[in-house]
Design brief:
The protein has 273 residues and is an all-alpha fold. The chain has one domain. The protein has 10 helices and 2 strands, in the order H-H-H-H-H-H-H-H-E-E-H-H. It has a two-stranded antiparallel ribbon with strand order 1-2. The longest helix has 29 residues.
Length: 273
């Protein structure tokens, strides 16, 4: 029977708490923090690197299901989520995430995983430049109409969902800069991106439960290491409101600058994987 050591328990709880703060502050799921934690833990047990990464990505996605609840509720209370737009955009990221979760099992060995890393890094660098270069948001009025545009949002939504499933993230690191570019004030871009993370993670988790992995004595549901997902997600659920409170108390320009720094840090971290 598998048992979690005290050291691993502490690591998972601390990682989940930090991911929750990041989720509330930036609208991200925290997967880029959690994936390396689970991957390194799995690798130490002797699991194959490919299997370890699949478990890490799937487990991070499952934890986002809990973390996103705390973040979404906190941003919703501050009226920072554009639900009408999400009613059309969220199904697109769900389709992309579900297909990405299935594809990663069947053709992961045929594709160069670094290619997806470079795609994300390029997007992160472009988004960071856009956030730092734009001196003020296009619209100062938070109540400005934010309309869905098929020609832009259809391909972006599918791509964000697909890449997120590959990387084990909630998509906020891509969605929030994109929503801000489309005209949302930064706080509303963060809140809307946070809300989009839940349906994205749900679709990906459904796909990951269909995997058939040999995880040794690890208790897996598909590719999901469910004890770690519950521990990290629970801590994220509790800490996400703190991050959301910080997001709505920081000046707009400072929040944009911090998000840009986060994107640069994530890009650097991925390049050194």
């Amino acid at each position: 029977m598998y048992t979690i050591s005290f050291d691993l328990l502490l690591l998972l709880l601390c990682s989940g708490a930090m991911a929750g703060i990041l989720a509330g502050l930036f609208g991200i799921g925290g997967g880029l923090l959690l994936v390396p934690v689970v991957a390194m833990t799995a690798a130490k047990t002797g699991l194959d690197t490919g299997v370890s990464m699949q478990i890490a990505v799937a487990t991070a996605m499952a934890s986002i299901l809990l973390t996103a609840i705390g973040s979404v509720l906190a941003h919703h209370r501050r009226a920072a989520i554009h639900w009408h737009f999400l009613s059309r955009y969220a199904p697109l990221v769900m389709v992309g995430a579900w297909s990405g979760a299935l594809v990663v099992e069947h053709i992961a060995g045929l594709l160069d995983g670094r290619l997806l890393v470079y795609v994300f890094v390029g997007f992160a660098l472009l988004s960071a430049w856009q956030l730092l270069a734009q001196k003020k948001p296009k619209h100062e009025d938070a109540a400005v109409a934010f309309h869905f545009r098929w020609q832009l949002d259809l391909p972006v939504g599918l791509l964000v969902g697909h890449l997120s499933a590959w990387l084990g993230i909630g998509g906020g690191s891509m969605n929030a800069p994109y929503f801000h570019f489309r005209g949302l004030p930064m706080r509303h871009a963060v809140g809307t991106a946070a809300a989009c993370g839940y349906p994205l993670a749900l679709a990906a988790v459904i796909g990951f439960t269909m995997h058939d992995l040999d995880g040794g004595d690890w208790p897996l549901i598909g590719a999901i290491f469910w004890p770690a997902a519950l521990l990290m997600g629970s801590m994220g659920l509790l800490s996400a409101p703190l991050g959301a409170k910080m997001a709505h108390s920081l000046p707009e320009r400072l929040l944009k600058a911090l998000f840009a720094v986060l994107l640069l840090a994530l890009a650097g971290r991925l390049l050194w994987l």
